[in-house]
Structures are given as C-alpha cells and as structure tokens.
Design brief:
By secondary structure, the protein is mainly beta. Helices cover about 0% and strands about 40% of the residues.
Length: about 190
C-alpha cells in the first residue's frame, strides 16, 4: 500500500471567551410564602370570583409585596401557573402593621379572578427583601389574640416556604393568616 503524504495544516488556537451565565430573572428568585386553599363545590357549586383580600403584617420595609393566586400542581404544591389577572402589589406606604395581627392590609385584583369549584390554589406572597413579616398560626401553640391553644387548622391547606420560587416545602403545622373576598353579583338591577 503506497503511503500518500498528507499536508500538515498549521493549527491556530482559537480563543473562545467564556460565556457568562445569565442572571436569573428577579421575579423567579424570590423567597415567597404560599398558603394552599380549596374552593369546595359543596359550598360554592359554581366557583367564586375573588376580588382581593387582606394580609396581616408584623413588619414591613420600603419595598412592595407581590400577591398572586396560583394553581397547585399534581403534588399539591404551588405551581408556576398564575391565574389570569391574579397578580397585584401591596405598596409599603399602604401596608398596615401590628404586633398582634389585628391590622389587615387590603389588596385588590385588577379584575375579579375566577376560582373553579373543587379547584386547588395557593395565595402566594413575594417580597424582594427580608423586612416583611406576616402572621401565621401554628398548631399546638397559643393564639396571639385569644391565648387559646390552636388545635384546629383554619383552612384545609398548608403553608409552603420556598427559597427559589420553584422548590416548595410544606409546613403542615402552620397556616398563613389571610382573608379572601368574593364578588357578589346583583341580578335584579334595571339596566
């Protein structure tokens, strides 16, 4: 077999600069809290339209707090799916605080948010700082207002904590103090 010479091509090193890792979107890297809840068909056969609600803060700073309603995923944890129109902000200037959870801070959605019967949801609170603290109830500890032992969960859900807005840890013995408002439609008004 004859040997055929192959020309040697000089190798020129190519310097490829390192690609910087993109910064994660700020909205996806919060440390949110979430409280799961259900709209039961036995109580609300047609579902409800949620107009807003109240949260109860112990402290705040000068940043805003985001409030969302999300669907739960198949494991019963908050999903990334935010319901249509179910996002709003609470400004620091409008937020009330108290040492005992008696002062509610209202929030309103831009338009009523439909929650279907037997739908499972999470009320999610997101802040860009650690200056915001909210009230929770913890099983088998005394209530701040009444002094009675908390021996029942106030909702059928769980409190969830996350350090990255993606992985959620259930806190089965704790529940967020919150109120949701539902719209009441009047049918017999002359147009």
């Amino acid at each position: 077999v004859p040997v055929v010479p192959v020309p040697v091509v000089p190798v020129v090193p190519i310097v490829i600069p390192p690609v910087p890792e993109p910064d994660p979107p700020e909205e996806d890297w919060d440390d949110p809290l979430a409280q799961s809840f259900q709209v039961t068909s036995t109580q609300y056969a047609d579902g409800i339209f949620c107009t807003g609600g109240e949260l109860y803060f112990k402290s705040k700073d000068d940043t805003d707090v985001g409030v969302e309603i999300r669907e739960l995923d198949e494991t019963g944890r908050p999903s990334p799916v935010i319901l249509p129109f179910a996002q709003t902000l609470i400004s620091s200037s409008s937020a009330g605080v108290s040492t005992n959870g008696t002062v509610g801070t209202g929030f309103t959605f831009q338009t009523p948010v439909y929650l279907r019967p037997d739908g499972e949801y999470a009320l999610v609170i997101k802040a860009d700082s650690i200056g915001w603290n909210t009230f929770i109830t913890r099983m088998n500890e005394p209530d701040v207002l009444s002094g009675r032992l908390n021996d029942k969960q106030p909702t059928l859900g769980s409190l969830f904590k996350s350090q990255n807005n993606s992985l959620w840890t259930a806190s089965q013995q704790e529940d967020l103090k919150f109120t949701l408002y539902k719209a009441r439609f009047v049918n017999d008004v002359n147009a």
